[in-house]
Amino acid sequence: MKFAPFEYVAPRRLEEAMDVLAESAGDGSVILAGGQSLLPLMATRAVTPRRLIDINGLSDEMAGSTWAEDHLRIGALTRQRAVEQDARIAQRCPLLSEAVAMVGRPAVRTRGTIGGSLAHADPAGEIPVVARALDAEMTIVSRRGVRTVPAAEFFARPQRTTLMDDEILTEVRVPLLPDGSGSAFVEVSRRFGDRCIVGAAAVVTLDQGRVADARIALANVAGTPLRAGRAEALLRGEDASPGLVSEAARIAAEDLTPPSDLHASDEYRQHVVAVLARRALTTAIDRATAPA
Ligand SMILES: Cc1cc2nc3c(=O)[nH]c(=O)nc-3n(C[C@H](O)[C@H](O)[C@H](O)COP(=O)(O)OP(=O)(O)OC[C@H]3O[C@@H](n4cnc5c(N)ncnc54)[C@H](O)[C@@H]3O)c2cc1C
Prior knowledge:
Layout (H helix, E strand, L loop, with lengths): L6 E3 L4 H11 L4 E4 L5 H6 L7 E4 L4 H4 L2 E3 L3 E5 L4 H5 L2 H6 L1 H7 L5 H6 L2 H7 L5 H8 L3 E6 L2 E6 H4 E3 L2 E2 L6 E8 L5 E8 L9 E10 L2 E10 L6 E2 L1 H7 L6 H13 L11 H24 L3
Parallel strand pairs: 1-3, 2-3
Antiparallel strand pairs: 4-5, 5-10, 6-7, 6-10, 8-9, 11-12, 12-13, 13-14
């Protein structure tokens, strides 16, 4: 099937893009970034924008990473492949590196952007679930001003965020983990690089063998990426023993009511969550205790 007809505009500056979005809010205009999610939807006419606002010309203002002592800022137009290949991100924010390498295939990651993946809000997306695990914050701009939205409030439902029609996601702020932390991302998919059936991200911070902080974020078990709050609470303040990890993973699965679809039943997803959460937590703990 061919695309439905659409208008096309390619602003060269963020200011210009904000003007275009302010003028066109609500009229069926849609931002185009890497096109890896939007163009397939347009090709099947599941989405028929009246106008595409191509923001690829804004790379100078919206691509690349900047570092502060306690956080990393990644421009929304940064390609997924650039993040995957960034040695400093691999060292200081390894959960993101590990997960981004599982997004599609290299060709997809070469075009696909970090911001596009977040704005697309696929509940199975690796980057959204990592944003939840790392308590990332989105910077969103429009002619009405700038706002910051925590990942916990950004994802609304499948393929829907709290972004308004006139807004652009410009960057994501990722807090860095303290010393003594380890993280891991694991997923089950039909083939490596396919959309995951279930994914699990774990972050553990240890203090003399005890769990100072634990986070478990799950992909494709609900309409948005989820945190397993009760399982996290069980771990905090306790010795990081295999028995406790298994119990936390069991609770993470027990608290879910995952969907059934073509790829997996709800029961299968629940079973896989217990397995993946245990694996992710165990690996995160091993990495937290490994010598630097
Ligand atoms: C074969 C294939 C396999 C894939 N496998 C996976 C996978 O395993 N895991 C995974 O997570 N993804 C997968 N994807 C999707 C891929 O990661 C996309 O790159 C990503 O979802 C969207 O990023 P994009 O830059 O291409 O955005 P686009 O497709 O250009 O846009 C996606 C949506 O986000 C909006 N948008 C984009 N940027 C902004 C912004 N800065 N501000 C506001 N709104 C914005 C657009 O308007 C659109 O609604 C796959 C895609 C393909 C084609």
